[in-house]
Every structure is written in C-alpha cells, then in structure tokens.
Amino acid sequence: MSVILYGLVAMILVTMGVGLYVAKKIEGDSVNYIVAGRGLVLPLAAATLMAQSLDANATLGNTDLTASFGFWAGAALPIGLAGCLFLTGLFFAKPMNRMDLMTLPDFYRRKYGRVTEVIASLIMVLSFSLLLGGNLVAGGFLFQTFMGTTFVQGVLIISAVVFLYTIAGGLFAVAYTDVIQAVVALAGSIALIVYVATTYGITIPEGMGPTAIVQINPFDNSAGSWINLATIFALALGDIVAIDFMERVFAAESPETAQKACFAGSAGTLVIGIPFSIVALSANSILSSIGVEAGNQAVLYVLLQEAVPSWLAVLVLAGIVAASLSTGDGAILGTSAALARNVLGIRDEDSPGEGVEADGSGFLSKGSDKLLAATRVMAVPITILGAFFAIQVSATGMLLVLAFDVAFAGLLVPLVFGIYKPDVATAPAALAGMLSGSLTRLFFFVTIPTTYAIPNNLLYVENSLVPAGWDGLVTFIAPLVGLTVFLTVAFLTKDDYPTHSVTGRQQRAIVAGGEEDD
Amino acid sequence: MYAVRRPSALVVPQAVRAAIADDVRTAHPHEAGGFLGCERRDGRLYATSHVALDNEAETPRRRFVSTATDAVPPSPRVFYHSHTSASTPSGLTGVDRRNIPDSLALVVFAPHGDPYSYRLFRRALFNWQEVPVETAEESAAVGRERLPRLV
Fold first, then answer.
1. Contact between A513 and B79 using a beta-carbon 8 Å cutoff
2. Do A496 and B97 touch (CB under 8 A)?
3. Is there a contact between B95 and A515 if contact means CB atoms under 8 Å apart?
4. What are the chain B neighbours of A508 within 8 Å (beta carbons)?
5. Mean pLDDT value across residues B37-60
C-alpha cells in the first residue's frame, strides 16, 4: 500500500510543481491565461486534448460498465469522446481557430448576440461544474480506497491541488501538466493490458465482447443498444460544444495545428480507453480465478488491489488520478473564463485579443488585466461548486449525463448553422432552438424513470405520456426538436434579422438601403 | 454585433447633428452613413463623436455599403445612414433589418439633401423597436428636445 501512496503523492507533487512553474508564462495577460497565448504547438495541443477527453468516466466508469453490461456499454465512453475529437477536427477546428475567440460562448455572442451568449454560457457552466464534480467523486473514492483518507478529505485534497495549479498557470499549466498526465495514462493503460494478457489471458464472456453487435443494434434494444448508441452519439456530437475542448482548439498556434491535434487526441483517446474495456471483460474471470469478489467496489480498483503487482497498480492509478486532474483543471478554467467573460461581460473591446496591458497590480502574477483577475476569482466559486456537487449530490453521474444532453440538445444546432449556414441562422432562431431543445430534454428527464439506466430518484413525475423504454432515445429526440424549431423560426425571421458570417477574417461589411430588393 | 442595455433615448448634440447633416448633404443624392460614438448617462445614450464612412455600393442612390475600419468607435455606438429619395421610407427597410449588423440604427430621412426626420431603431430579441431621438446644446445636459420624426 505504501508504494501506491508514495506513487500517487509523487504524481500529484510533480503535477503541482510543473503547473506552478509554468505559471510565469502568464505575464499578467488573460490571453495567455485562457488560451495559452494562442501558441500551443502540435504535441502540446494534442496531449492536452487527449488528456482532457479522458476522465474518470472513460476509465473507471468504462471498466465498471463493461464488466456489468458488455464491451460496448463501457467502450461507448472513449469511442464517443474520440468521435467528438474526430468530428471537431474534421468540421470545426479550423474555422473556430481562425475566429480568434477566447471562449466558446464568444461564438454565440458574435453570431447571435448577448442574450444567446449568456444562456449558452449558463448551460455550459452548469454542465462543466457537474463534470468537475463527477471527477472529484472519482478522485475522492480513489483516495479513500488507496490512500487512507475519508471520501470528503479526498475530494478536498484533489480540489485544492487542481485549483492551485489552474489558478496560477491557466491553460499553460493545464497543457503542460496534461502532457505528463497523458503519458502516465497511456503507459498505465498499455502496461495493464499487456500484463493481464500475458499473465491471465484475455477472456471474453459470451455475448459481451466487441463482436456482440446486438449491443449497438438500433433495431434490437434487448441488450441496451439505445443507451449505448445514445452514449456514443451524445458524447460524439454533444461534446463538440464542450468549452474545454474548444478552448484548446482556440489555443492551437494555427488552424492546421488545431485540426491535427484533434485527430491525434482522438486516436490517443481510443488507444488509452479501449484497453480498459478489454481488461474489464476479463475482470470477473480473473477475480474468480484468484478467489476474490468485487462486491460493491469498482471492479478496476479490486483488480488493481488483488491481481496486479504494486508498480502496475501505481501506474494505472496515477493514470486515473491524472485523468481526473486533467479534466478537472480544464473544467475549472473553461467555466471560470465563461463566467467572467460571457456572463459578467468583463472584456476590453479596444485591446488586441481583448486583454489589456498588465498594470502592475496583478493577482498571482506581475500584472493583471481585468479579465485575468476576474477569471481567477471566478475559479473560486466554480471549484467550491464542483466540490459541493461531489460531496453533497448523490446523483452526480446522472446529472452529468443530463447536463451534457441538455447542452447537446440546445447548443449544437446554433453552432453548426452559425458556421456552415450563417445565412439562415438568425438570433431568434438560435435562441428558440436552444431553449426548445434544452427544455425538451429536461421534460424527458422528469417524465422517464431512468436516465441512461440510472434510476431517477431526484425528480421523476409518474406518467403514462412517455414510455419508460425511451431512455436513450430521448437523447436524439430533443436535438431534433431543437433543430425543427430553429429552422421554423429562422424561416419566419429571415426578413427581419441580419445573418452575417462570423467565420472569416475579413473586415465586417455594413449594408443598408433605402429601397427594397427588386 | 454587441448589444447594449436598452437606452431610453439617444441624445445627439447640435455639433454632432451638424456633422451628420453635412455628411448627408455632401453625399446626396447618394446614401451616406457612418457611426456615432456614444456615452451612456442616466439611461440615455449621448453621441460624442461622428465617423463618416465611404459608400462603396454599386448603386449608391439606393444602397449604403461600407466596410468596418479601425475608425469605427467601440460600443456603445449607433450606426446611421440616410434614405435619400422621396419614395423611400423614413424608417427601416427590409434590407436594413436584414443587413445592418449593429443593434442600434439611426435612419436619417433626407429626400432633398437636408435631414428631414431622425428615427432610431434598436434590435430587440424578437423585433426592431423605435427609440426616441433628442437633441441638445453643446453640454447635452439641459434643454433636450425631440428631433423631427416623420412616420
């Protein structure tokens, strides 16, 4: 146990040290803090995207779901996340990087105006506070299991660590520590599957493996295919509007770098995540062969405690801690920047990059502009909120998937049309589509007894209106409602609202006219 | 496109009003346009500066087309342009509503070259709403009165 303790402490100290060391790069400038000076080279950008996509869900949640329900139930998480990075690279990385944005809600402001910006920001802030909370829960349990702390102490320690290096070094700290975290997670994942394969062999239970296509057959829901498919598509499409991914896209040094980083991050997510699913398939047979039962504990934790040598347990656990830290830091940074800039509206229109010169009165640096100081201050309530969710809310996992479903249902359509069909995308259409999609998803949340197979003990209204079997399906229905409303309102308002493009670098054209078109 | 908090009125001091009138008169019968830099005081917007833009339209008598430059003042600001024919409306046309990127648009109706009506429109969430336009002495603090408005 002491080897694990020392290993995890070393991992955390190295992360803290690197994060605090690179904080000197901030130089009192919010552009450096929020988007790393828009200068991330390919290895850094790819590593930070890969580390950001892998979180406790894609590792711990993945193994638990695979062991219980089969390969596709668990692997849906890394596959969905990798799919998101692939789609982002294919369709969004280049145009979004060219726009010189600092936060994702900046896009909604530039294209659709202030009201849309604020609503989009609030949805994103809520989603990512829950994402932070979910990762703190995983970290808290890990500390409780392997380091002898209580759950609450574990959550507080991880919160403090992430908070300290994130608030000091912003995206620079996040990116540099993500490189360490990605390397550790990759090494842990590969070492684990190699060790398990050579020591115990890979055993795939009947009907549970990757070839059991019934798990993702949309026409046969007997093996939970709707939930598996919903997980893949909700992550692949819904995370396109994730503030943490897009922040890294904005931070890449060029559009081409942003695109390549997305592709590399996508591949890395699969390389790290899939081995956890494969190992989990064998977990139950390995544990029974050595006479151990997992009980209520996470199957991966039991496997690491009982079936692998300490050095490998340290490596894998460090990888899981790394995944939690790297996702947590991105969540804190992204949400605090969105709160300061897009909800509170702190910005300076006059200065390049919308930062202002350091004035010598900085907070944790030589100088600090208004946005930098406000973003750092906002990190305090966000971290507290994340820790509160982790400690006080029992259904963090369910709320997390709900929050991301709500974002998927409301935010994706205005983003896609804003970039690719700007001539039909009016502000009322965006607002109506956003609200109708998100509210539809919330309606289904309270009218279906389960959310991704998790019983809804929070707010379920018994009814005969919505079939209980629609769990999973509603993930697709809500965005389609949002799309329909968006297109309808766009048609109705096309004559009254400007539909300018916001993706080009060219200066804005102004058109007016005293006579109507012929 | 930067929205501003809803102003109760736009106050155009006489010096700025004269600058607008000069620009419109000089460009006539072509449409003129530009921006007014503003300050917010007591819920009103006060125009403090005037920036005229060149009309680059192929049909300048019925269109105003220009490109935003570094001279365009920061928000809060008002985009203004003139309607220069007796057959044009004194308010926004469909072309205006569809294409003016700013959220505050001042239409100066000047069918014979001299401004005849001033109407300010603010793009709200679901439609364009008219906002009163006033003028005042140099200090812009006292003696405000409504500018002529033809409907």
1. no
2. yes
3. yes
4. 67-68, 101
5. 91
Q: Which residues of A touch B96 (CB under 8 A)?
A: 512-513
Question: How would you classify the pairing of strands A450-451 and B133-136?
Answer: unpaired
Q: Tell me how long chain A is.
A: 518
Q: Which tops the pLDDT comparison, B97 or B52?
A: B52
CB proximity A509 to B under 8 Å: yes
Mutate to test the interface with B, among A515, A516, A517, A518 (most CBs of B within 10 A): A515
Q: Residue A198: exposed, middle, or buried by beta-carbon count in 10 A (0-12, 13-18, 19+)?
A: exposed
Instruction: Work out the minimum CA distance from B65 to partner chain A, whole angstroms.
Output: 5
Amino acid at B95: V
CA distance A182 to A51: 5
The structural domains of chain A, ordered by start, are 2-393 (1.20.1730.10), 406-510 (no CATH)
Token pair recorded at residue A125: 């802030």
Tens-place pLDDT, residues B25-47: 999 999 999 999 999 888 899 99
**pLDDT tops 70 at residue A518:** no
For the stretch A202-231, pLDDT in tens is 888 888 888 888 888 888 888 788 888 888
Nearest alpha-carbon partner for A475 in A229, A215, A224 = A229
End-to-end Cα separation, chain B, in angstroms: 27
**Shortest Cα–Cα distance, A495 to chain B (Å):** 6
Two tokens, residue A240: 């396109």
pLDDT at A163: 92
Measured CA to CA, the distance from residue A337 to residue A320 in angstroms comes to 26
Q: Which CATH superfamily is domain B10-146 in?
A: Cytidine Deaminase, domain 2 (3.40.140.10)
- Per-residue confidence at A334, pLDDT binned at 50, 70, 90? very high
**27-66 in chain B: CB under 8 A from chain A:** 31, 33, 53, 57, 62-66
State the average pLDDT for chain B: 88
Q: What is the pLDDT of residues A380-402, one digit of tens each?
A: 999 999 899 888 876 666 677 77
Measured between beta carbons, which residues in chain A are less than 8 angstroms from residue B108? none
ipTM associated with this complex:
0.79
Residue A54, judged by CB atoms within 10 A of its CB (0-12, 13-18, 19+), counts as: buried
- How far is residue B31 from each of residues B56, B79, B150, measured CA to CA in Å? 10, 13, 18
- One-letter amino acid of A84: C
Q: Is the pLDDT of residue A1 over 60?
A: no
